[in-house]
Amino acid sequence: MTSTGTDSRLKLAVLGSGRGTNLQSIMDACAGGAIPVQVVCVLSDVKDAYILERARHGGIPAEFVDAGPFRTKLEGAGEKRYIERLRHYGAEAVALAGFMRIVKRGLLDAFRGRILNIHPALLPAFPGLESWKQALDYGAKVAGCTVHLVDEGTDTGPIVVQRAVPVLEDDTPETLHARIQEQEHIAYPEALRALASRRVRIEGRRVRMGQKA
Ligand code: GRF
Question: Which one of the listed residues 57, 119, 177, 185 is annotated catalytic?
């Protein structure tokens, strides 16, 4: 992972399809100097996603990029378009923040070991959609969020950071999701701090954060 010129901050691209509250937490951490990261662009597969507005409001280049005909994955010409825009902005790493598509080999190969995702559950429990609802329906007593490196699977890559929240007796899907999101906004900057300072070492499935890689 290299940075050019005098600015040694990690050049990060954020990809999202929704509200962008995680983007906001990352932008706030960057602006406050809490993490040595610069968000160089925000790309979305949804034209009117609020994440794009948040980015522009924060002075970050933001683009809708057509992801192609598949609804749930990023492949083929759409994938090529994303890789081209990421290179255009000089991205060194990618943070998926509510990006509602499975990324495939082309993007994984272009940013091997440098794509993170955030998932609203304590993986490997409850992968997939609406995990907070799955946890509630299952009767779990503890829920949470996971930041993990992205691999070929769905929500399967090596885990970088997890934060737990208790499931309360009177929780609804909405209240539980809101408390999980509060923890997401701490977890993502924490994982990015480790990635940017090259403290993330992967040994098999285990991510170690102790020393510089
Ligand atoms: C988060 O709950 C994240 O865990 C999931 O998508 C949601 C994105 O929220 N992958 P936001 O757009 O960052 O507010």
Answer: 119
